[in-house]
Amino acid sequence: METTVLKPSKGLFTIQGSGRVNRQKSLSKLEKEGIIQRFEYTFELSWKTLKDYLEAQGEKARFPRDVIKKAFQYEMIDNGTVWMQMLESRNILSHPYDEQAFETVFTKIIQEYFQAITSAFQEMERLYEGD
Asked: What global pTM score does this model have?
């Protein structure tokens, strides 16, 4: 069976382009919700892209936690702890709305998650250039 590998896309996570992101207090609730939604689908695409690459290399990983662990072992991601926190945040966001959780996750997206996903994207680009 042939494995299809998803290549990273520069359009995955574009909150960096917003000059207002660093002034998160001035963002409206709607803008924050948009950033959180973008994080959710970007995280999904990110771990699944890592999974596809690992599988193309002969590694078996079915679930996000397994993929994150293997990606960290293979130095595809820099900080496995932050990726596990992203997974936990994604899971928290799937439950009924909680204002405090929303704000906590939003802050982590701006302060940690964006950089972690950007770093993984850059590593995936490097790996694909080598293939």
From this structure: 0.80
